[in-house]
Each structure stands twice: as structure tokens, then as C-alpha cells.
Design brief:
mainly alpha; about 0% strand
Length: about 80
């Protein structure tokens, strides 16, 4: 179950990061010049949010797994 969850989060993380990057690109190149800094800037910040969530989904599960393995090794040494 854990490996399936990891695959899902990695796939979803890539999708979210790419969509966020596309929204940021669209916001900077199209939205800010047309609608101004307020609306275009908020659009771009929304893209930044999606990008950061996507990157977090890519980075956090492997770090969690590494920490879990390290804790298991420490428990084995302590016993």
C-alpha cells in the first residue's frame, strides 16, 4: 500500500508542478501585461502555489521514507 501511495504522490506531484509552472508562465507573459499587477499577480501567485505543492509532493515522501528507515535502524541497534 505504501509503494502505491508513493507512486500516486510522485505522479500527482509532477502534474501539479508542471501545471503550476504553466500557470506562472501564462501569468507573467499574458496576464500581467493585459490585466495589470493586481489580477495578473494573483494569477501568478496561484500558479506558484500549485508549483510549490507539486514540488512538495515530489520531495516529502522520499524524505519521509528515508527518515522511517533511519529510525528503524536506530531501534534495531538499541535493542
Amino acid at each position: 500500500m505504501e509503494k502505491e501511495f508513493r507512486k500516486i504522490t510522485l505522479t500527482f506531484g509532477v502534474i501539479m508542478a508542471v501545471l503550476g509552472a504553466l500557470v506562472i508562465w501564462r501569468g507573467v507573459t499574458k496576464m500581467i501585461p493585459v490585466t495589470g499587477w493586481v489580477h495578473g499577480g494573483l494569477f501568478t501567485l496561484g500558479g506558484l502555489f500549485f508549483f510549490l505543492v507539486g514540488v512538495a509532493l515530489l520531495v516529502v515522501p522520499p524524505l519521509r521514507a528515508r527518515r522511517k528507515e533511519k529510525n528503524a535502524e536506530e531501534r534495531e541497534k538499541a535493542s
